[in-house]
Amino acid sequence: MIETVKLSKTFKGKKAVDEIDLYIDEGESIGLLGPNGAGKSTTISMISSLLKPTAGDVKLNGKSTIKNPAEIRRILGVVPQEIALYEELSAYENLKFFGEIYNVKKTILEQRIQEILEMVGLKKPQKELVKTFSGGMKRRVNIAAALLHDPKILILDEPTVGIDPQSRNHILETVRKLNEENGTTVLYTSHYMEEVEQLCKRVYIMDHGKVVASGSKEELLSILSTEDMIQVTLSEMSDTVVEKVKSIKNIRRVDATDKSLRIISKKGSSILSDLIHAVESEGILLTNFQMETPSLEDVFLHITGRTLRD
Amino acid sequence: MFPVVKAQLKKDIRSPWLVILLTLGSILFTYIFTYVNNNEQTQTTIPIFSSDFNSSEVEEKWEPLLNANQDYVFVITDESEAHADVEEGNSEAAIRLSESDYQIIAASNTQAVQLVEDYVHTVFTQEAQLEAASGSEDIEATRKQIGGYLEDAPLQMQTESIEDGEVPEYNMQLQLLFGFTLFLAMFTIGFKVNGVTSDKISGVWDRMILSPVSKTAMYAGHLFYSFFIGFIQICIVLVIFNYVMDYNLGHNFGMLLTVSAVFTLSMVSLAMLFTGFIKTPEQFNMIFPSIIPIVPVISGVYMPPGLISNPVLLFIADLFPLVHAMEALMDIALFDAGWNEVTLPLVLMLLIGVICMGVGVNLVERRTK
Ligand SMILES: Nc1ncnc2c1ncn2[C@@H]1O[C@H](COP(=O)(O)OP(=O)(O)OP(=O)(O)O)[C@@H](O)[C@H]1O
Ligand SMILES: [Mg+2]
């Protein structure tokens, strides 16, 4: 349905998006993951025709959308990263405004607004001003405003940043319903791994403007199939102990936080005795030890050497 | 376009205070300033006296001649009282009269004293000329003769207003009324046009771009709304002064409104030009209100006409619509000017409008890319 071909954007000599190829089939729900500044929003702006690419193309059903964006705009619903609403108006008035600019027929607009308010769980406070809403409620109106014209494709740019868990679950549930029950194609951007794991069948991982990995969740996890993930907790932490653990044979990576170590080692290698030895030689106790199944977060760490949120 | 206008209108109905305050402000400012101005004029009282032997005769001769002007009231006073008035600052000056001469008594040589002196000098010179002309004959008869002659002179220069009738006195009160009204409307218009930047920053603009609404309709919606609110504000103020407070705004209220409409249009464009140079609505709210108050000052709104002669200032003032609107409004209200006489200011305002709009929209669009 939608396809990008070597999509690139350069801002004043700085490559924000660098030759990205991705495709989205009808009815799919795709995750676009990446840390701050990875180029997610820039990619989305180009796909939704708000930003002209420096190079490359965006295609809808094989036709370039750059010269003639009317077609893609008609079937697209975009939820921007920032709250793009009239805060001085009520939730209802905002939805009415966006419905009107999308030429939703008067006869069905009212019903449509009520349906959507119901869906995002804001039917009761609909007459209250958006500026009086909590962050989570605002986010939900922000999503609702993109749904009035019943878009075939819904693009959401980090729709859950900085909100309460209740609103967050509500949003995730809404998006899931839209995708599964309504057949809406979804492109979901986030830097929360769990959300994407929960919501999306296929994931693109971006870093520094490039797609660094992509595939289904299983495919991505198989990248780590040759490694074990071990989490240990220590009675205290020191730099030398980290260095000692790092030098143990078959250990590939050590990340130290407060009083715990996250260790990636070669699959099936027995490092436990070496580990205990190294820790105790520093006079430190090993208080907890856990083998973990790797998550997409670990995949990301593996590929970029960074955590998603640093 | 109409959803955009409706949304703006709804926002303002929610919090109409800015517009209401600026409207009330126009009325209040005009009222206070013209009131103060009027009082000052009627209160320029100058004590006069004579210490000649035939003092009462001298006083009675000059008193009516001096009082032929409306700016000053000359009151015959006791000499010591006159001195006291000047010393205590109750009067700017007092005048000691003689048969054919006078002496100004003042505490200091201020500009006000200078003006009185000029005026009194004119009256005495005229009288002296009359006396000289009549020789030994009866001055009163000569005065009448000359008066009659002047009224029906063989060579007549008539100062007439453009249409017909006498040249009315320049009316500062009217100028302040129009000045404040347009000045405060400039703020309203600016703050409304700033809605474009607000929408851009909030992201609502991008949402509209993705919708089927055309860009022209987006701009038109915002600009039409700004025009509408600005114009309504001017109308309300003018209607209140004309019909409720019974100020004399001339005979052609419709023309006043038309000029106001063209002014509003051209101010909307000017605000759009500002928008082209700023990034955020907050920036606009800082810069616009700090530049706009200079406009009426260099446009000479607060002063009688002709006092600003610096060509640079005059040129700068000409770049803003205010000076042209003031000229047209004063001509209509004071001199009953017709369409022909106000064509130039109207055309100039439209020209400013077209240029500012073109440049402004272009700058805004370029910034987006
Ligand atoms: N208009 C712009 N002008 C200049 N640089 C920009 C512009 N927009 C984005 N960038 C830069 O491009 C890079 C990618 O930004 P982008 O907003 O796409 O990242 P993101 O993945 O959405 O990050 P976040 O999670 O913070 O939203 C960043 O380094 C950013 O500073
Ligand atoms: Mg972003």
Automatic annotation (TrEMBL), chain A:
Q: Any transmembrane segments, and where? A: none
Cite the ABC transporter domain residue spans from the record: 2-233
Kindly give the InterPro entries that the UniProt entry links to this protein.
Answer: AAA+_ATPase, ABC_transporter-like_ATP-bd, ABC_transporter-like_CS, DrrA, P-loop_NTPase
Which is one Pfam family of this protein? ABC_tran
Keywords for this entry? ATP-binding, Nucleotide-binding
Q: Name its cellular compartments.
A: Cell membrane
Report the principal subcellular site.
Answer: membrane
What membrane topology does the UniProt entry give? Peripheral membrane protein
* Gene Ontology MF terms: ATP binding
Family statement drawn from the similarity comment of this UniProt entry: Belongs to the ABC transporter superfamily. Drug exporter-1 (DrugE1) (TC 3.A.1.105) family.
Which protein is depicted? ABC transporter ATP-binding protein
From TrEMBL, chain B:
Which keywords describe this protein according to UniProt? Cell membrane, Membrane, Transmembrane, Transmembrane helix
Give the ABC-2 type transporter transmembrane domain ranges: 18-359
Give the way it sits in the membrane: Multi-pass membrane protein
Cellular compartment(s) = Cell membrane
What the entry lists under InterPro entries is as follows: ABC-2_transporter_component, ABC2_TM
Keyword Transmembrane helix set for record: yes
- Parts of the chain that traverse the membrane: 17-36, 176-197, 217-241, 253-278, 284-303, 342-364
* Pfam families linked to this entry: ABC2_membrane_3
Q: What is this protein called?
A: ABC transporter permease
Taxonomic lineage from the root: Bacteria, Bacillati, Bacillota, Bacilli, Bacillales
